[in-house]
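@channel sequence for tomorrow's demo:
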Amino acid sequence: IVDKLHAEVVRILKLPDVAERIASQGGDVVGNSPAEFAAFIAAESAKYAKIIRQAGVKLD
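structure tokens (generated this afternoon):
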């Protein structure tokens, strides 16, 4: 299911009007693999967790 969904999303992201609309809103069209996306999310989570801890941010 994941591979089929991924293939369809990548196909849609390659459509010129979709890519243009995303870019016009400041987005970047990537279309990477599910494994690459998981690695990106893990890295971003670690990076921002460190920043949040250093800043002493607390939830109310």
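heads up for whoever presents: The CA atoms of residues 52 and 58 lie 8 Å apart.
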